[in-house]
Design goal:
With about 130 residues, this protein is an all-beta fold. Helices cover about 0% and strands about 50% of the residues. It has no helices and eleven strands. It starts with a strand and ends with a strand.
Length: about 130
């Protein structure tokens, strides 16, 4: 099993920045691609960003491209999401997720069902 713990959420004004972190523990050797998802009240959980096991591939949902950067440190079993120019519509609970299936060093998924491990989430609130 892998345990994921997010941190770094909070209240920020529109235009501001936040850095979310995800710390993994447990059987991290069975953790491959990782991703960030978010869920706003009344909405489905949606993909925000992902990064392959190697770190060589990243992907972002269109609405955050150019504003967010995902990174990971496999030696420290951590993943981060740097978010800039935050908008009110970025407000949501942000979840860290990890894929337990080896699909190659550059693979990353954007579907919820491709991820096996989930953190409990961290709240991001952007005020106008």
């Amino acid at each position: 099993q892998v345990q994921l713990v997010e941190s770094g959420g909070g209240l920020v004004q529109a235009g501001g920045s936040l850095r979310l972190s995800c710390a993994a523990s447990g059987r991290t050797g069975s953790m491959y691609a990782m991703g960030w998802f978010r869920q706003a009240p009344g909405k489905e959980r949606e993909f925000v960003a992902g990064i392959s096991r190697s770190g060589g591939s990243t992907d972002y949902t269109q609405s955050v491209k150019g504003r967010c950067t995902v990174s990971r440190d496999n030696a420290k079993n951590t993943m981060s999401l740097e978010m800039n120019s935050l908008k009110v519509e970025d407000s949501a609970v942000y979840y860290c997720a990890a894929d337990a299936t080896w699909r190659g060093p550059y693979y990353l998924g954007s579907r919820r069902d491709e991820y096996d491990y989930w953190g409990q989430g961290t709240q991001v609130t952007v005020s106008s």
